[in-house]
Each structure stands twice: as C-alpha cells, then as structure tokens.
C-alpha cells in the first residue's frame, strides 16, 4: 500500500511533463464574429489492481484515487481490476468513454508484473477499441512500480514502520476446520498457461468470476464452480477455457464469448458452437 502511494507521488513528475497544455490546439477564427475554441485536454487516470473481494481493498483503491486526483493535471481518477473485482478494467474504461476525456492513463499498481502484462493489456485494449468503434481518447499504460527509482526508499519506509508492529504469537495447537464438499456439477477451467496469459486469460478469468458472482452461478441451474488451470493443451487457440462435465473446449475466448457460454452452456446446457473446438485428430487454428 505504502509502495503504491509513493509510486503515485512519483508519477506526479511524469504527469507534469506529459500532460497536454491547456490552450494548445486552440483555434482562433479571425472573423467579424471572432470565436475562440479552446480544446480542453482532460486527463483521466485508471488505477489498476488484480482483484478485490472485501470492502477494505475497495477503500484502499479509493484512497489511492483520492491521492492521484490531487496530482497536477489530473481531472478524474477511477479504478478497475484485471481479474476478479468490480468494476473490471474494461468497465472502468467504458465509464470513462461516456465522458469527455482527451487522454486516459492506465496506472498498474501490481508487483510483480509478468513480462507479458503489457503485451496482453495492449492486445486487449486494441480489441476493445475495435469492438467499440466510436473515437477513443489517447490511452497510455504507465510503467510498473518495479521500475520506479523510489522503490528502495519505499521499502526502507516499510521496514522501519514494521518495528512498531507486534509479532504474531504462536498457537499451542491448530483447531481442525471442516469443509463442505461442493454440490455443483459444472466446472469451468480457465487456462493460465503462458500463451493463454499472453492472450489475456486474466481478463477472461476476471470477467467469468464477476459474472459468476452477479448471476449467482454457484447456486443456479446445476451450479458452476470455476478454477484456474495450467496448460489445457490447444495453446494456439488461446485464450482457452474448458467446460465440464462435457469437457467442451472453447478458444479465442472474449468477454462476449464468456457471456454467451454462461447463458447458453452453463445455464442452458447448449454448446456455443461459435467458440467451441471439438477433438478432430488434426491441428486446428482459430476461426
Ligand atoms: S497455454 Fe492455454 S492451452 Fe496451452
């Protein structure tokens, strides 16, 4: 948390440097009716974290938003999640698209970040831009926390602050905790292998989990549970997920594909042929 707060302070300098200046691009009409049109550059920042489930991390994200909102040149801040959590990054961007921003900066707050993070986020942004053809503001992705020269100072602050924290007392014995055996009959495995992650599997996982919560899929119909998996096999069809008990493979999965798989397959029992790939004994490519 402290690291993220300090990182936002670090980005203050970069924002001062890169923000379009107010008044730039002004058009002055030399006419009997002189009109001056000032194109206002308006910048929004989206803080990005992986997941949030409880109220406390949402409060932390809001606290970070408030800090970022105080930075010079920032007109609006919001947050979004790349995995489970509401709003998803895509939903956060969609909300910003309803407003008149000239540029949007995506500020990742995660540590560590997979090398493929920027690649799949860039690919996903391009897909979203293609799917929503109305003009987009400029979108940039800020560099990650690990690249900040302030990282050592942040760690020193955390280490010093830890001295005041009481140590964790050992327990004499651990009480056994029981578990419910799941009654759900359906399973969705979302591949998290390298090629699938590079193709945006995190976003697909997050979207599925958000839909699972919103539509109460665990207790609806046959009941659905979902899990991340290692490589499911057909990597060139990334991102891949598999639905059981049928074992149906879905490839090239998008958020819209997840919505259809939820409605038609998980709740309706019908395989979604547009995204399904069945074993043929021959190599298959994305359609
Ligand atoms: S990495 Fe996803 S199918 Fe292999």
In short:
This protein has 8 helices and 11 strands. It is an alpha/beta fold.
Q: What would you note in describing this structure?
A:
This protein is 34% helix and 17% strand. The protein is an alpha/beta fold and 287 residues long. It has 2 domains: 2-151, 3-Layer(aba) Sandwich (Rossmann fold), CATH 3.40.50; 186-277, Glutaredoxin, CATH 3.40.30.10. A hairpin with a 3-residue loop joins strand 9 and strand 10. Helix 7 packs across helix 8. The two termini are 43 Å apart. Bound molecules: FE2/S2 (inorganic) cluster (FES). FE2/S2 (inorganic) cluster (FES) binds at residues 191, 193-196, 231-235, 238, 240.
CATH first level of the largest domain: which class? Alpha Beta
Query: Can you write the helix and strand succession as a string?
Result: HEEEHEHEHEHEHHEEEHE
Question: What do we call the CATH topology of the largest domain?
Answer: Rossmann fold
Count of distinct strands? 11
Number of domains: 2
The secondary-structure class comes to alpha/beta
Query: How are the strands ordered across the major sheet?
Result: 8-7-9-10-11
Beta fraction of the residues? 15-25%
Rg value: 23 Å
**Percent range for helical residues?**
25-40%
